Structures are given as C-alpha cells and as structure tokens.
Amino acid sequence: MKPTVFLALAASLLSSASLADTLVTNANGIQVDSAGHLQRFSGLLIGNDGKVVRLLHAGDALPKASSTVDAHGETLLPGFIDSHGHVMELGVDALHLDLVGTHSLAELQQRLRDYAAAHPDAKWIEGAGWNQELWPDRKYPTAADLDAVVSDRPVVLERVDGHALVANSAAMRAAGVTAQTPAPAGGEIIDGVFVDNAKALINRAIPAPTQAEMDQAFAKSQDILLGFGVTSVGSMSTSLNDWNTFGRAGDAGSLNVRLMVYLLGLDPLKTIPHPTPWLYDDRLRAVGVKFFADGALGSRGAWLKRPYSDAPNTTGNQLHSDADLRAQENVAAAAGFQIATHAIGDAANAQVISTYEWLNSKYGLNRRWRIEHAQIVDCADLPRIGRGYMIASMQPTHQTSDRLMAEKRLDPARLKCAYAWQSMLRTGAKLAFGTDFPVESPNPFPGLSAAISRQDINGQPPGGWYPEERLTFAQALHAYTRGGAYAGFAEQKIGALDPGKWADFVIVDQDPTKVNPQQLARTQVLETWVAGKEVWSRSPQPSATERGK
Fold it and tell me: What is the secondary structure of 124-175 as a DSSP string?
C-alpha cells in the first residue's frame, strides 16, 4: 500500500473514531434497505454530530464510544416520517374541546356543556373532531343544537376532516353571517354548518391566537408526535404564523421534530418567495406549496365524476377551474417549490393528474409533484400517476375509518381503485404514508397494520377490505420511512439509519414482524431519539452510564 493511501485511510479511520460518541447495542434493529428489503441489525454507532457512523450486526466487534446504550433486546426502527400532517392543528386541538369519538349529538352537547362550564372566561369556544357518520341518524349538528347548550358566546366546532364546521348563532353574528349570506363558490351553508370554502366566512371572525398560545400548541404537538415515534413530518397547509412559530422553537433550541413545510397557497410566497435551505441542523425547511382541488368524502365535498350514490343531486365541490389550478400551481412551480395538491374524489384526482402532466411538460419529470390523499381514483387514471413520476401521499387509516361511509357514498366500480396502495405501486408511483393528523391519530402503527391487512384495529372486515390492495410489511415500512423522505426531497438526510444520515430512531415494545396486524396496531413506543439524542421516553430512563456503559 502506498504511504499516501495508507495515511489517507488512517486519517479516515481516526476521523470516524473521533466522531463516534454513542454506541447502541443489543438491539433488534429493523429497517428497509435501499432495495426495499427488510434489513436486520444489532446495533448502531452514532457520531457526536448526531449522524449514523455505521450499523452493527451479530458477531461484529463492538467499537469504543464515549457512551453505550443497551437496548436490552428491544426492537429499534428508523424514526417514522408522517408525510401529511397538520402540526399546529394537532396541538391546538389538544388544547381545545375534543370531540373525537362522540357517538351522538347528545354526547357532543354534553362535552360542550362540560367544557363551557370548565372555561367560563373563554371568549370563544373552539373544538374539533365530530363525525356525524358515527351517529345513529348521521345528521349534521346545527346552530340550534349548539345554541341549546351555549348561547352567550361564540362556539365553532370543526368536523374531524377539517372540511366543515358548525357554528352557533353567536359565532355567526360575530362573523356577520345571516340567513341571506350566500355560500361562496366551492362551499355550502347548511343550518349553521359551513363546508369547504364557506368555512372562511366564520374563520375570519375567530380571534387570532397569541404567540404564547401558538408556542404552547406547538410544544404540545411535538410531545404528541414524539410519543408516537414520529420524528419528521410533511407539515401541510402551513401559514406564516405557523412558520414563525417553528422558527421561534428553532431559535430556542426546542425544535425536535423535523418539518418539511408545505405553505398554504400563494400568499406566504410574498414573504418566503423561494424554497429555503435546511435550517436548525436539518429540522426545518420550506420545500413546497399546498393547494386544494376538492373537499372531503365525509362531508360530500370530494369532487366526483358521477353523483354520490347516497346523494344523487351532487358531485361534490370543485374548488378550481382547470385554468385557475394550472395558473396558481405554475406560479409556485416557477419559484422552485414542490407542489402538493389535496385530491380525494376521482374528478379531483383526474384534474390534478392533468395539471401535473402539464407542469411536467414545462419543468421536466424531476419535480416530484405530490397528490395528497389520492383516495378515489378512476382506474383508467391510475397508470398516469406512475408515468408522470408523481408521488401518492396516502393515509392507510383513512381506509379503515372511511370504509363503511365510502360504501354508502360510492358504488363498487368506484371503490375498486379507492385507497389502492398496491395498485398505486404497480403503476410505478412513489408511495409516501402519513395520517393526516389530527383527522386521524398520528400513531403510525395502526397505519402499518391497516396497510398490511386492510382491516381496522378490531380485525374488521374479516379477510380485509379489497384485500388485493394489501402491502407487505416491507412495502408499508418503506412508505413510512424512505418513501416519506423521498417525498420531501430529504432522502439524503433521513428515512433510514444509513451511514451519514441522521440517527433518528425509535425503540418499541415488540417486533412488528412477529405479531398479527391487530397486535401490530397496539405497538407502544418506549423511546424516541433525534440526531442521536433521546428526546422522549415512556418513563424516566437511567443515564447512559447506568444503562451499561
């Protein structure tokens, strides 16, 4: 060996050794490799820069490190990437009236009554999470229903999908809304319920939160996410106030979840005219712009090619003409942003696919245009997604939550290519998974379970719903890790525990490959690590020295 080569090799080895700060041993490590196969390992060497130096396997000599962590045989996975979540809304909802899981109007009213009594000084009562599809009569709540409980101050309660809200009379008076107020294009008003674009009529009157309230909500959101092992998020529909909140956390050194930010529409581009570089040690970046093509299936706002099976007088809400959607998305694309478009109905998905094909003709095939949800897609349109190198950003738990409602809204021909994960992969499309939290819980394990079984946490329906769309565990884990990183142009930094990438990982209480889907859904996170540092644990943990240095 030539001396210069030897010296270079020695310097490289010394450099690696000097960076080795933490050694994780005795782990049941599982990840997906670059070829999409499950890869097992027994340990992890982390540099003092917080990045992976190398993986260890059974029989490898253990390198020296300044601290050693014994995983005690527990399972270690890469940190999960939720490709589509609403970060501030998660924290805000956790601090407001929680209506998730109400099974009747009476239960909603009781929760509202209790909350109002416990918060007598709240000038406005805000809440979220109701879903009339879980109620016996499946009827929307009305302004009168809220007035019967609280009439002395405004009440605004958002539907679980975020695409509709119900307001009491005091809230409508504060917003200047009367019986004569027309619904805007792409929206509806129904007895105090404001759907899609009509929501703005009420939202404009709600007092803006203070910085302290925003900071509190973000801290709560981070705690929830880290508790579920989510270390990175595609932060959808991000406002400038949200962005500034993230920045304050970064300045304070309390930004632990990595955020790939998708700004809400074109207005934020007046302040953030181009994608930003990664900030705060790769924890914050404005990468894209989010648009909406339609509403949601539960509120019949999803835009369909043919009328709803259970409401033949409507096809849902088309939020933009073809020309308008092209024009708006072209502005963002020309500024260098990635485009992410909400599309649930088959007509909306067709419109977005056509828009992206047009953008491909202008900008090439390397821009990773994203379809958010891609729930109800015409089977004839599916191959176009793969041919256009588009990303399908999908949420497995939407399938289990929506199943019974979707069967009412849609006929079997349209359900054939609904929530179609395996078919999507076969087109060549890239798949990225998330939860759309707080619409669903940000917990990734019910999502993994749904992806491999097409069943809910109780094992329904037997055999799985359209079981041909099931994924393998490796495919599902890929969509929740490497796929999510790719979808946010972050595959060189996160998504796997490869050398040179950030040591973002979780330790969980069971091996997800050795349990049935329903047990998988109940997996508990024990610890969450970001950049080689523990940032969340289920119970107080001993120091690294006490754990077996």
Answer: SEEEEEE-GGGSSS-PPP-HHHHHTT--SS-EEEEETTSSEEEE-HHHHHHH
Asked if the structure places residue 42 within a domain, the reply is yes
Cis before 273 (ω within 30): no
- In this structure, the answer to whether residues 115 and 134 fall within a common structural domain is yes
Q: What is the pLDDT of residue 5?
A: 34
* Range(s) of the domain holding residue 17: 3-79+503-537
H or E element at residue 108: helix 105-118
Q: Is 175 found in the same domain as 142?
A: yes
The CATH number of residue 8's host domain is 2.30.40.10
Q: Please write the tens of the pLDDT for every residue from 433-454.
A: 999 999 999 999 999 999 999 9
Dist. CA 180–CA 161, nearest whole Å: 27
Tokens of 535: 């940032």
199 contacts 172 by C-beta, under 8 angstroms: no
pLDDT at 20 (0 to 100): 62
- Residue 392 CA to residue 425 CA, distance in Å, equals 9
Percent of the chain with pLDDT over 90: 93
Q: What is the pLDDT of residues 285-294, one digit of tens each?
A: 999 999 999 9
Report pLDDT digits (tens) over 206-222: 999 999 999 999 999 99
Measured CA to CA, the distance from residue 545 to residue 547 in angstroms comes to 5
Q: Establish how many alpha carbons lie within 13 A of residue 364's alpha carbon, considering only the half-sphere containing its beta carbon.
A: 3
Domain count, the chain: 2
Mark whether 32 and 124 lie in a shared domain: no
Please report the sign of the dihedral spanned by the C-alpha atoms of residue 416, residue 421, residue 422, residue 426: positive
